[in-house]
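WP5 quarterly update. Target: F-box/LRR-repeat protein 15-like leucin rich repeat domain-containing protein. Source organism: Nasonia vitripennis. Length: 255 aa.
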Amino acid sequence: MLVNCRKLTLDNFHVIRGFRNLKQLTLEEFYFENGFTEDISSCYKSLKYLTLAYGYTESLHQIAKLINLRTLDLSNEPVDEELLVSIGANCKLLKVDISDCSRVTNTGLASIVSLPDLESLCIQHLINIDDQVFCAMSTLRQLDCNYCTNMRDAGLIKLIERSENLEHLFLENCDYISKELLEAAVKATKKRKNQVMLKLHLRDKNIRRLKASVISPFLPIFETIIDQSEGFYYSGLQSFVGSYPFIEVQKFTSP
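Structure tokens (predicted):
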């Protein structure tokens, strides 16, 4: 793990080509003009967990060569449609975080949504995508759409109805969602044969605004309190919820 590594040069980084058993790599707040992703792609046989977040580079397209990658975090990176299409075609990812990647549109995101084994997807602060990109995602367990301001009911309702393993849906500051979403989620969770509980995570203002006429024991709603300094989600009176998306949620306490 290398954090705040702005003084690390490409000449120093070439050494990674010799790390034939490297399984996990984290780079945050880095600065490389070009070429370093070629070094990373040389570890395609072993690398399974990759974080490249809040740094600077001209291109990330070599990342799509990491065919054994399972977890990918590209938060606040120059992610474009071409890269996401390549990743969708070549990788078998379980967890993806592309939060704050301002270039992402529905076209690129559709390739990630279509990943057959995807379990966790974090797309916070994506202002150029909307709910129409979502489809049936049978393996999806966690979806974080916080601050995706174009999210509306229709696509999210389809997702809930067709994704029976979905356990956590984060919708903080998605102000276009309405009571219709809540009503549909109640009906969908009652029909679930696997008895998986869907937990909706909303801010207090949304909880007060959305009131369903019926309730479901499989649809608890949690007030989300976010500790930005630690990146943790809490519910109720600071009860531990868990970090997302790369550490599995372990405990929930109803507010």
